[in-house]
Amino acid sequence: MRISDTYHNQFMQQRLQNARTKLEQDFEKLSSQKNISRLSHEASLVRKSISLNQADVSLEQNQETTQEVENRMNHYQTLLQQVTQAINDLKDFLVSENKSGSYTDNATIANTMESYMDTMKALANTQDGDRYVFSGTLTDVIPYDAANVYQGNNEVATMESLPGMEHELNITGAAVFGDGGSVSNFFEDLSNVINDVRSGTTGAIGAAEDLVDTLAERVTDQIYDVGIQLNRAALSDSMAESKLVTNQESRASYEAIDYAEMISVYEYDNMALNASLSVASDMMSHTLLDYMN
After folding, report:
1. How far is CA 133 from the centre of its chain?
2. 3-state helix, strand and coil shares in percent for the chain, rounded to the nearest 5
3. Which letter does DSSP use for residue 143 in this model?
4. Residues 135-171 pLDDT 10s
5. Are residues 186 and 121 in contact, defined by beta-carbon separation less than 8 angstroms?
6. Whole-structure pTM value
7. 99-107: which pairs have CB atoms within 8 A and are 24 or more residues apart?
8. Among 31, 114, 195, 208, which residue's Cβ finds the most Cβ atoms within 10 Å?
9. How distant, in Å, are the alpha carbons of 9, 12, 280, 288 from that of 283?
């Protein structure tokens, strides 16, 4: 066999292999009805698919972040609504007692006020799992101790969902009930007023009303801020979901195939393979005859 014959044989074997590979790819596309079957196929489409998959992972992580924000803010909203209810109940009681002008049973009045304060303090010291929710970022520290002193800090933790979309994750006890520094401590002040009521100090109930009104304003401000955070989280989640849908549509547009066109391609490639087999067969026959002669 001549060197040229060997070269021709190798050339034909490579052509046959290429034709078989192309036909296998066509068959896979027809079977899956997608343009991408293996990473070795359609390199540009594969790169685009990987890029979209990475974007989807990031968007899904963003949605997890917004879900965490929504869970925390909904919890704060519930707690603040409960504080509001306790404030209203205490205010109604104080107004009623102040109108009556009777201080004959100061101990009972003071005890009732103390009961309402204990309810609000329990809400201020609420835990979510093992995390104190009103301690700022010192979530392992009880916000208000037995002496009503604030033990937390004034720091607000934040997380980013979409680029530039930052969310607050906590409300500090200082912002609602006060820390005794820049913001007066409601529990310390009310405790002092309760002692005044118990001792029969004139105007003590009116002073308690003023404290309750101040707390009500703070709580209202925080409920408003919670609403803002919930709206931002909902907006972020909506934007991420919209982008996920767009990515899915984009992916479908280049992964989906024109079935009729693919049938034609498959038939053409099948004919090409058969033609290559026929040529290879003729060449092998001539080579064998040349060898025999």
Report:
1. 19
2. 70, 5, 25
3. S
4. 999 999 999 999 999 999 999 998 887 777 788 899 9
5. no
6. 0.68
7. 103/200, 106/197, 106/198, 106/199, 106/200, 107/198
8. 208
9. 8, 9, 5, 9
Contact 72, 168 (CB under 8 A): no
* 8 A C-beta contact, residue 19 and residue 262: no
CA-CA distance, 53 to 131, in Å (whole number)?
35
Q: Which residues pair with 166 in a beta bridge?
A: 160
- Helices marked H in 200-258: 204-255
SS3 284: helix
Q: What is the pLDDT of residues 30-82, one digit of tens each?
A: 565 555 444 445 566 666 666 767 766 776 778 788 888 899 999 999 999 99
Q: Where does residue 261 fall: left (phi above 0), alpha (psi -120 to 50 degrees), or beta otherwise?
A: alpha
Q: For residue 286, what is the enclosing H or E element?
A: helix 259-292
Helix (H, G, I), strand (E, B) or coil at 165: coil
C-alpha closest to that of 65 among 135, 155, 171, 169: 169
Q: Which two tokens stand for residue 58?
A: 């990031």
SS3 209: helix
Rama region for 167: left / alpha / beta (φ>0; ψ in -120 to 50; rest): beta
Cβ neighbours, 10 Å, residue 87:
20
- Distance in angstroms (rounded) separating the CA atoms of residues 145 and 210: 24
Backbone angles phi, psi at 166, to 5 degrees: -100, 140
| CB of 151 closer than 8 Å to CB of 157 | no
Q: How many residues does the chain have?
A: 293
Q: Determine how β-strand 131-132 pairs with β-strand 158-160.
A: unpaired
| Maximum alpha-carbon separation in the chain | 135
With contact defined as beta carbons under 8 Å apart, do 184 and 178 qualify? Answer: yes
